[in-house]
Model the fold of this input.
Amino acid sequence: MVVLRPYNDGDEVQIVKLFNEVFKHNRTVDYWHWQFLESPYGKATMALGDADGKIIGQCTLLPSKIQVGDSEILGGQSIDAMVHRDFRRCGYYENLAFMSYDIGTESGIKFRYGFPSQAALQGILEKLGGSLVSDVPLYMDVYRLDRLVSYFLKSKVVSKILSAPVKFLIWLFKGKKIKSKRKYEFKEVKNFGSEFDEFWDRVKSNYPTMTSRESSFLNWRVANHPTIEYKTFAAYYDGRLRGYIVLKDEEKMVRGKYPLKIGSVVDIIGEDEDTYIGLYERAKDHFKSIDVDFVLSWILDGMYYGDTLKKLGFIKTKSRIPFAVKNLTLDSSIDEYIFNEENWYLMPIEADTY
Done:
């Protein structure tokens, strides 16, 4: 018999075991503790399927403080929804999801959001009452086109010859590059102090809807991440913090055999356009120093300073990441903010996969 119930202390051992079986990962209990229990906005709400003492399903909402207009409210990000293969197509996923919504609203969460796979998106829209806000476009800035071509041609000389006209076309498509006008002082950040709270208070009114970038959030999400070592640079001008950029690099295999080094702009916040330009110039120096092949970033349509990132060299790819939202309350005043793509400022720091 399957019983749906909230999380109890000690359930994490079975939850992690189910996660690793469903998603073919090797997650540890320590990682789970960091992700689900240590957020500065409280532990995640979890609805579990218990089959005679065995966890067979889960739906969660990870609380995040969201800037919505002039207010701050709690949103809940849906992550790690899963059901054991022997219990699928029995309605457990939908029932667990609705139970997680009930638990979440009791703890103050106003809306649910997430980045579902294409396979899960249809169920969210049709069965759970969610709405698709955006197919977040993935943008790319190409650094080493010749290396990518050489993997397929197995000749460095020929690859450089063939990649040259393509590089010219990319340069032509990108148009004239823009450059920062100020001379910033850049510092690498290992820990986010109170000056980041002061900076967030200065700039948050520029972003109608976004996750709060308080120091507590940045320390939990970036500085204290248990498995990823991010690179963060802060920009200073006239002795004052003007913005920061969080970077990630990783090696991935293309077609299972061609290794590529990929960079990602995980987060970037600046007080004005020139700060964005200066931050990416610093990021580009870093990425070139570690020899990445290309850099990825999210740029939503209408996103604050999104056009600036495009001018810096990012071109749109065919890849998309669905972003879906559901209001869990009867308060319709937040709808204009959470359902409007142009109000959102989304970066990969939002997603647990980065």
Summary: The first helix runs from residue 12 to 23.
